[in-house]
Each structure stands twice: as structure tokens, then as C-alpha cells.
């Protein structure tokens, strides 16, 4: 059955960047998907069968999101987006592998943005992922780390969070270390327990195969053959982020997640995640992925709530 869709772009400038020099990106997409593309001013018309048009719309949705965040797109961006929309994203486990003893769940990206995220984690030594609540940033990162451990590609998991609410001064809190950091690390425990049996998690923690710790405890260490996740990275200072990223040892992989609209640092302090994205964006083997409200996989209302808050922020006058 034939189908048609029209995408209205924001400006002629967006169209030029999206289509590529001499319509290079349009030709790549047309040849890959078999969809007919007609560009007229700020409008792009897609024609073909239902699958071709659907994949084309999804591809342009992803490329427009990349363009909004990076101010440019490359042929490599187009290639990755096309692979994701055509193949549906790759699972976090190989065929026959499981994320826990005696069973466990296979994790599959549920959106095109999540598919790009999983591919970035696979292909890069360092991945920075930014997005609002509910986009699966932490869950997929933990899933990737567990998968790498199960496949023998790493020997240790290190899951880290800044304890901003306690100012990282954990000595002033009552109880032993576990009691002190538990409130701040609970989301990491929850994701881990959803993928592995509780007994296995405890056993791995007892044997130092899994370590869950506040960011302050990373100073002075070098982590080899490890998958290292920093969750809520927007709440790390610039100095803390530099300290954390330089913990990477041989055969290690680092994943940093965060929501740069939810920074809990003092107002005058720059977020280490925002700073890292700016400093590291052109370095090879570092992937930077942005997720948005289209990637939210929680209750459908969460998507509407995030959009409402973002719309309100956009209406506020900018400070010059």
C-alpha cells in the first residue's frame, strides 16, 4: 500500500544542513530505504510503501534531533540512524546469553534514540548520554555493563553516583558506608536487581566484582577491565568529572548519563557533564548521545509532562 508524509522544517537553513551538500544525505537515505524524497523549500515530501515512509520519517526525526544538539550532522550520523531505523536497534545480549543466572531478560532498545545509544556504547570507549527522565539512560547503561560482564569482556562493574544532597561529606551521616550511600545509589541497585538475581548481586559485591559507590570514592584509582557508569553526571563538578573520566584503565568502558536540565549544583558552579560534552565532542572513540521526549518509555503521561516543562522553559526570556 502506497503512503505519503510531509515533514515541515523550521527554516531553509535547517533544510540545507539536513539534506547535506548537494543533497548528499537525501541521496544516502533514498538509496538505503527506497523511499522517494521531494524537497520544496522548507517542506520535504516522502512517498513509498508504508514501511519505507515510516522508516524515512523516523530517520529524519532522529537526524533533526541530532542537528538541534550538534548544529551539524555527518554522513556517519546518517549511516547510524539508517541502520537503527532499519534493524530496530541491537539487543544488549548475544543470542543465547542471559543477563542473570537461571534466567533474566533480554534488553532491546524500544526507540530509535535508544538504538543509537546502545550502538554508541558498543562502539566507543566513552559514551556520554543526555536526556530527560524516563528515557532509559541508566537502565540501558546498567544493562550494557551486565552484558559485558556476562560475555567476559570486562571483569568488574563500577556503578557511581554523586551524593550531591550530602555534599559528598558522607562522614557526617549516621551508619556504616552502605547505610550512608544507599539513598543516593538506590536507582542503580534497582536497575541491577531487575537484571540479576539478588543473591548473585550480593555474591558479586562480596567478591568485589560489582562495586557501587559515591563519586568521591573514585579519587586516586585506576580501573582496568571494568565497565564504569557515572549516573546523574550533571551533578558532578568540572573537577569531579575530570577526576572520574581519568579513572579509565586498559580494556575499560565508561558510560556517563545525566539530565542537564536537572542540575543540583550551586548556581555559580558549571556542570561537569555540560563541560565534558563541550570539551570532548570531537575526540575519536567518544560517543555523545542525546535522547528526548520521543524516547521516554515510562507512563505515557511522563512524555507530556516533560514536554510541558520544556515548553515553559522555552517561553522564558533569555538572559543576555
Folded structure, characterized:
- This protein has 320 residues and is an alpha/beta fold.
- Helix content is 43%, strand content 16%.
- It has helices at 12-19, 24-33, 50-70, 75-87, 112-123, 137-150, 177-193, 198-206, 238-245, 272-280, 300-315; strands spanning 2-8, 36-40, 43-49, 126-130, 156-161, 210-214, 226-230, 253-258, 286-290.
- The strands form two sheets. The protein has a six-stranded parallel β-sheet, with helices on both faces.
- Strand 7, helix 9 and strand 8 form a beta-alpha-beta unit.
- Helix 2 (24-33) runs parallel beside helix 4, helix 3 (50-70) crosses helix 4 (75-87) and helix 5 (112-123) crosses helix 6.
Amino acid at each position: 500500500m502506497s503512503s505519503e508524509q510531509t515533514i515541515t522544517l523550521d527554516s531553509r537553513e535547517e533544510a540545507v544542513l539536513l539534506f547535506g551538500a548537494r543533497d548528499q544525505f537525501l541521496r544516502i537515505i533514498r538509496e538505503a530505504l527506497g523511499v522517494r524524497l521531494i524537497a520544496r523549500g522548507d517542506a520535504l515530501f516522502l512517498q513509498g510503501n508504508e514501511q519505507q515512509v515510516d522508516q524515512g520519517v523516523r530517520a529524519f526525526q532522529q537526524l533533526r534531533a541530532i542537528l538541534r544538539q550538534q548544529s551539524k550532522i555527518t554522513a556517519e550520523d546518517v549511516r547510524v540512524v539508517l541502520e537503527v531505523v532499519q534493524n530496530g536497534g541491537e539487543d544488549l545480549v548475544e543470542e543465547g546469553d542471559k543477563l542473570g543466572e537461571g534466567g533474566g531478560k533480554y534488553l532491546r532498545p524500544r526507540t530509535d534514540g535508544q538504538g543509537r545509544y546502545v550502538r554508541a556504547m558498543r562502539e566507543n570507549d566513552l559514551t556520554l548520554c543526555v536526556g530527560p527522565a524516563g528515557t532509559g539512560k541508566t537502565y540501558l547503561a546498567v544493562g550494557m555493563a551486565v552484558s559485558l560482564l556476562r560475555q567476559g569482556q570486562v571483569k568488574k562493574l563500577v556503578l557511581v553516583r554523586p551524593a550531591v544532597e550530602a555534599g559528598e561529606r558522607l562522614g557526617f551521616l549516621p551508619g556504616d558506608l552502605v547505610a550512608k550511600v544507599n539513598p543516593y545509589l538506590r536507582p542503580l541497585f534497582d536497575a541491577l536487581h531487575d537484571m540479576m538475581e539478588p543473591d548473585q548481586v550480593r555474591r558479586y559485591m562480596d567478591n568485589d566484582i560489582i562495586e557501587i559507590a559515591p563519586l568521591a570514592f573514585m579519587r586516586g584509582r585506576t580501573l582496568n577491565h571494568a565497565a564504569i557508569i557515572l549516573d546523574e553526571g550533571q551533578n558532578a563538578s568540572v573537577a569531579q568529572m575530570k577526576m572520574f573520566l581519568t579513572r579509565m584503565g586498559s580494556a575499560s568502558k565508561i558510560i556517563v548519563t545525566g539530565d542537564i536540565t536537572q542540575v543540583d549544583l550551586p548556581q555559580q558552579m558549571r556542570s561537569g557533564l555540560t563541560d565534558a560534552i563541550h570539551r570532548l565532542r570531537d575526540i575519536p572513540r567518544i560517543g555523545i548521545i542525546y535522547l528526548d521526549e520521543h524516547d521516554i518509555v515510562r507512563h505515557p503521561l511522563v512524555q507530556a509532562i516533560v514536554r510541558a516543562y520544556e515548553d515553559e522553559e522555552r517561553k522564558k526570556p533569555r538572559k543576555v
